[in-house]
Amino acid sequence: MRRTFGDTLGWSETGTGLLLGTAAGWGEEQYLAPSGLPGWTRKHLVAHVAANADALGNLVHWAATGEKTPMYASPQQRDADIEAGSRKPAAELAAWLTSSAERLAAGIAGLDDDQWNAEVVTAQGRTVPATEIPWLRSREVCVHAVDLASGVAFADLPAGFLTALADDIVAKRGGAAGPAAVLVATDTGDRWELPGEGEPAAVEGPLADVAAYLAGRPHSLSGRALPALPAWL
What keywords is this UniProt entry annotated with (predicted)? Predict the structure, then answer.
């Protein structure tokens, strides 16, 4: 694993600042514009990020108190929260985005060493130590800052985060059916093998483009029979 707990705390703060700064001052017109995710406006995306902060706050509460507090009551509740958030006025949605991020940051700052080692369960049903919470948040704020489609690119994200993101995606995508690929970041020398069907496609390019490709986002890579990947997150 090429990331530390300290790394993820820093990336969570960096990504949160980048996302909040990008959306700062938006009115209805900007919020109603399409995001980088098909079928979602920026309102949908911001509602998702705000709801995610509240959901991860539930895991912080679980770690702090020992009281079992799932991220979401159900997948249906998660979807309903996003849809309801997408109908909020711009000012109300912006306030939720900011206040939810502040509540999560305060909760994280309040955990002690024993609480950080407490086990919690993610929305996907994985049992993990609470130290994974900042990583889960890092992925959301960093990747979705790009998905706001307002000028932030994968190249603007920390290189260490991009490497850790690629590691994470390959580990999870490797268990799914799909075409095989070998990916090389030409600027860092990092290499990933994506298991799959058929002769592996050779994919080379800058780290930012490799991470964007793995995340199913727009990129500038080219290669033999470059397989398309669905959106990650």
Answer: Isomerase, Pyruvate
